[in-house]
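Re-run with default settings, no changes from the original entry. Doing this only to confirm the output is reproducible before filing.
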Amino acid sequence: MAETRGIILAGGLSSRMGGGDKALLPLAGRPMIGHVIARLAPQTGPLAISANGDPARFLPLGLPVLPDTVPGFPGPLAGVLAGLDWAAGHGADQLLTAAADSPFLPHDLAARLAGAGRFALAASPDQTGVQRLHPTFGLWPVDLREALRRALAGGSRRVARWALDHGAVTVAFATVPFDPFFNVNTPADLALAETMAART
C-alpha cells in the first residue's frame, strides 16, 4: 500500500494582501493555515509546511518547515519539490499538496485524488460551468522528483503545465454550497472567508 505524506504550500509573497504571511492571518479564531491543517491532517500521513524565511514563525503549529531548495523564489513547483524530497527521505511513495490560503478544502481530497490514479490534480467548475484546475491541490508520485528538479533548473514554473505534461489526471469537485478551493488573496476575500467559516 502506498504511503503518503502531505505538504501545505505557504511560500507565496502575499502581494495582494499587502505582504507578510497570509497563512498566519486570523480566520474564525485561529490562523488560516490552522483550518487547512485541520482538514488535511486526517486525510494523509505526516504533514509539513513549505515556506521560506524564519521557520520560527510557524513553530506553534508543530510541523516541520521546508524551505525551497531552488533559489530565486520560483513558485509552488519549488515547494512541491521540497515536499517530494522530504517524502522520499521518509520512504513515502506519494505527496499530497494543498495551498495554505484555501481554508475550506474538501474533506475527501486525498481519497478522490487517489481514486483517480497515481498523479492527479483537483478541479472545480467556475460560474459558467467550465472546469478550472487547482494545481496546488494534487497527489504527486515521489518518483517524479528528479524530473521536476531538472525542469526547475531549466526554468519551468507553471505547475499545471508541468503536471499535465507528466501524466496528471484531473478530478472534479462540486462547488455546493461554495467552491472548496476558494482562496484568500485580498482583505475582501478574508472578510468573505469569515462569512463562509460561520456557515461551516
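The chain is about 30% helix and 20% strand. The radius of gyration is 16 Å.
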